[in-house]
UniProtKB/TrEMBL annotation:
Assigned protein family: Belongs to the GET4 family.
The protein's name in its UniProt record: Golgi to ER traffic protein 4 homolog
Compartments where found: Cytoplasm, Cytosol
Residues spanning the signal sequence: none
Claim: Transport is one of the keywords in the record: yes
Keyword annotations of the record: Cytoplasm, Transport
CC annotations in GO: cytosol
PANTHER family registered for this protein in UniProt: GOLGI TO ER TRAFFIC PROTEIN 4 HOMOLOG
Keyword Transport: yes
Primary localisation category: cytoplasm
Length: 313
C-alpha cells in the first residue's frame, strides 16, 4: 500500500513538471498555477518533501512570471502548501525515535529535510511578496509562517547552541510578522527549555529585536503577552536587573529622552554585558529612535546577523 502511494505521488509530480512548462510557454498561467499548487499539496501530504518543495518553488516562479499581485487568493495558495508540510507529530517513526539511536538519527535527518524545504519555499515566497506586494521586509503573514515552522520543527536539543541558533532564526521572522502574541508563546517555551539563569535573556533579546526595527508597539505587546502567559501558567516573571532595564527602556522610548536613554545604558551596563549582542541592539535602537548615528555602521554581531538574514531571505 505504501509503495503504491509513493508511486502515485511520483507520477503526479511527473505530470506537473511536464505539464506546467507547456502551460507557461502558452502563457496559460492560471492553469499552471492551479496544477502546481494542487500538485505541491498532494506531494507534501504524502510525505514527499523534496518533490513538494520543487513544485512549490515552481509555483512562486510562475506567480512572478505571470506578475500575479500579492492578494488573498495567492496567499491562500501559499498557506495551503505551508499547511501541507509534514510535522514531527505526523511521523510514526519520529514518535518512536527514542527507542533507537538509528531511528533518532533518521528522524533528525527527516526533520532537517522538512525545515530546509519549507524554509526555501517560504523565502522564495517572501521575495515574491517584496516584488509584488510593496513589503520592504516581505509579507508579515509569510514571516509568521516561517518563524513558526522553524521553531516547532527544527531538531535542536534543549539548552544547546543549536537551540539558541534556531530561536534566533525563528525570532528574525516573528519580529517581521504581525503576531507578537504568537512570538510570546515561543519565548515562554524557550524560557522553559533553557537554563533558569538565562530566562531573562530570552525575554530581553526578543524585546530588543522589535526595538531594533523601530517597532515599539509590538515590543510592548510581546512584553505584556509574556507576562500574561507566565501568570496564566502560575509561573513567576523573572526578576532581574536586566528586565528592570527593559521595562524602563520601553517607557523611555515613548518620549524624546535621549539623556535618560544614555543614563539607563550606563547604569545597567553590568547586566547588558552578559550578552554583547544587547549593546548592538541598543546602538540600533538609538539610531532609530533618537537619530544617533552609529560610528561603525552595521557592524558587530547584530549587523553580521542582519546581513546574513538579508542574503538568506
Amino acid at each position: 500500500m505504501q509503495n503504491s502511494t509513493v508511486n502515485s505521488s511520483c507520477l503526479m509530480k511527473c505530470c506537473c513538471l511536464c505539464g506546467s512548462p507547456r502551460y507557461m510557454h502558452a502563457k496559460k498561467y492560471s492553469e499552471a498555477i492551479e496544477l502546481l499548487s494542487s500538485g505541491a499539496v498532494a506531494m507534501l501530504k504524502h510525505g514527499q518533501v523534496t518533490c513538494g518543495t520543487e513544485l512549490g518553488l515552481l509555483l512562486i516562479q510562475t506567480l512572478t512570471a505571470a506578475k500575479v499581485p500579492f492578494d488573498n487568493a495567492a496567499i491562500d495558495q501559499i498557506r495551503a502548501i505551508f499547511n501541507a508540510y509534514p510535522r514531527a507529530a505526523d511521523s510514526q517513526q519520529e514518535s518512536e525515535a527514542s527507542n533507537s539511536g538509528v531511528e533518532s538519527s533518521e528522524a533528525t535527518v527527516a526533520a532537517r529535510t522538512r525545515v530546509e524545504g519549507c524554509t526555501s519555499f517560504l523565502r522564495a515566497a517572501l521575495k515574491w511578496s517584496i516584488e509584488t506586494g510593496g513589503f520592504s521586509r516581505g509579507a508579515p503573514e509569510l514571516h509568521d509562517m516561517l518563524g513558526q515552522y522553524i521553531w516547532t520543527e527544527s531538531p535542536a536539543p534543549v539548552c544547546t547552541p543549536n537551540q539558541h541558533q534556531e530561536m534566533m532564526k525563528a525570532s528574525q521572522h516573528f519580529v517581521r510578522g504581525n503576531q507578537p502574541e504568537a512570538f510570546a508563546k515561543v519565548v515562554v517555551e524557550c524560557m522553559n527549555k533553557c537554563y533558569p539563569s538565562e530566562a531573562d535573556l530570552v525575554i530581553a533579546r526578543a524585546v530588543m529585536l522589535y526595538l531594533s526595527l523601530g517597532n515599539l508597539r509590538d515590543a510592548n505587546r510581546l512584553w505584556d503577552s509574556v507576562r500574561q502567559r507566565l501568570s496564566d501558567s502560575s509561573q513567576d516573571f523573572p526578576d532581574s536587573p536586566l528586565l528592570h532595564f527593559v521595562k524602563f527602556l520601553l517607557s523611555t522610548l515613548e518620549r524624546d529622552a535621549l539623556p535618560l536613554f544614555r543614563m539607563l545604558r550606563q547604569k545597567y551596563k553590568p547586566s547588558l554585558d552578559r550578552d554583547p549582542s544587547l549593546e548592538e541592539y541598543l546602538d540600533e535602537v538609538a539610531e532609530r529612535f533618537y537619530n544617533v548615528q552609529r560610528r561603525n555602521g552595521m557592524q558587530g554581531m547584530l549587523g553580521d546577523f542582519m546581513k546574513m538574514f538579508a542574503m538568506d531571505s
